[in-house]
Backbone:
């Protein structure tokens, strides 16, 4: 009928706009999401956009705190409110356009199969509440994350939960077996490895934005103030603090490799593996690299392209991990207080792959 046709055309247009928002807001995920098979692609795209909206609220340091907490805690309901848009003014956070036109994302979210909708809403609820706890000062000392346990919990909320949700979507699509969604610790590690590496690399950017994610339990061993690492007289302390952070992240590598080895679908494998190989190469780049205390560093474009082309199967991914873990062990210095523990963590990675 004419009405059906009109609805189909409207839906094609809003789906197209969602993919435009994806290209606009995601540096790294857009290309791997677009390569996913079938209906899983749309579900993951909408999952990304919903969480990108939530993270934009979390990251907005100009928003009134009570209002922020209210939005974060109710975001899982907002995604069901047809026509909802974010109208508060305030300086432009770079992803704000997505929230201003959030009605488009809601329309497409509501067109997903109910199974996909409920996975996304469930994770959004858990993440939004976790973000709200941290934004309102729980688990923190002043502005910093206090303990390693708090650090792990924060990373669980903002990234480990993404791992849970993605595994649930893979299973719901039938492209992967139900097994992949059962081992929560493996899915959590997939997110933690990405998030912790991002937090190390973004030391300076986050500090300049007034945000501190490194746990005091680690950095407090090396300085009195988190910003002290930018001072030239603290170079050595900064290097040792950084190596302690890298040591902390290496913990998750064996679980990441175990998770990847369980995947069966090629498009899902590429989607999962590419961000992880980018992270291990970033980790090798930041290790003992004092530039991170002054400006943003990134792996070179050519290296990133090569990694994407090479991440085709488990054997190749294991070779890539071995290569970068070897780079880390080559840079590991005997005078570093973390030398021995880093050697042991590398040993654990080596037996796992
Ligand atoms: C749904 C693909 C594959 C089992 C927006 C992918 C920000 C590192 O510093 O944007 O804010 O710029 O560079 C992604 C597990 C989450 C964890 C988390 C959702 C992998 C909102 C990614 C992405 C699980 C909270 C992006 C966690 O970093 O950060 C989808 C398996 C969003 C994944 C945030 C961070 C993601 C992140 P920045 P980025
Ligand atoms: Mn980023
Ligand atoms: Mn954030
Ligand atoms: Mn962010
Ligand atoms: Mn970051
Ligand atoms: Mn950022």
Residues:
């Amino acid at each position: 009928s004419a009405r059906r046709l009109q609805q189909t055309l409207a839906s094609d247009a809003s789906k197209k706009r969602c993919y435009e928002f994806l290209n606009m807001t995601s540096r790294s995920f857009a290309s791997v999401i677009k390569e996913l098979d079938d209906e899983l692609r749309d579900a993951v795209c909408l999952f990304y956009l919903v969480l990108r909206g939530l993270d934009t609220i979390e990251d907005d340091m100009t928003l009134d705190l009570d209002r922020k907490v209210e939005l974060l805690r109710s975001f899982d309901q907002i995604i069901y409110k047809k026509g909802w848009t974010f109208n508060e003014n305030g300086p432009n956070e770079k992803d704000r356009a997505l929230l201003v036109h959030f009605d488009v994302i809601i329309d497409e979210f509501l067109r997903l199969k109910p199974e996909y909708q409920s996975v996304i809403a469930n994770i959004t609820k858990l993440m939004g509440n976790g973000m709200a706890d941290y934004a309102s000062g729980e688990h923190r000392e002043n502005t910093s994350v206090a303990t390693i346990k708090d650090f792990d919990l924060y990373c669980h909320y903002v990234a480990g939960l993404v791992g849970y949700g993605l595994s649930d979507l893979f299973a719901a699509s039938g492209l992967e077996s139900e097994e992949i969604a059962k081992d929560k610790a493996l899915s959590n590690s997939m997110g933690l490895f990405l998030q912790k590496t991002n937090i190390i690399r973004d030391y300076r950017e986050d500090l300049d934005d007034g945000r501190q994610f490194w746990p005091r339990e680690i950095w407090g061993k090396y300085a009195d103030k988190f910003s002290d690492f930018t001072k030239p007289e603290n170079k050595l302390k900064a290097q040792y603090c950084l190596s302690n952070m890298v040591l902390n992240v290496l913990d998750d590598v064996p679980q990441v490799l175990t998770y990847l080895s369980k995947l069966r679908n090629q498009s899902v494998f590429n989607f999962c593996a590419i961000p992880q190989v980018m992270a291990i190469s970033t980790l090798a780049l930041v290790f003992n690299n004092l530039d991170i205390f002054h400006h943003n560093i990134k792996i070179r474009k050519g290296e990133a392209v090569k990694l994407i082309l090479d991440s085709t199967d488990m054997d190749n991914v294991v070779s890539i991990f071995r290569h970068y873990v070897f780079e880390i062990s080559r840079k590991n210095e005997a005078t570093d207080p973390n030398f021995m523990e880093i050697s042991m963590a590398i040993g654990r990675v080596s037996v796992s792959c």
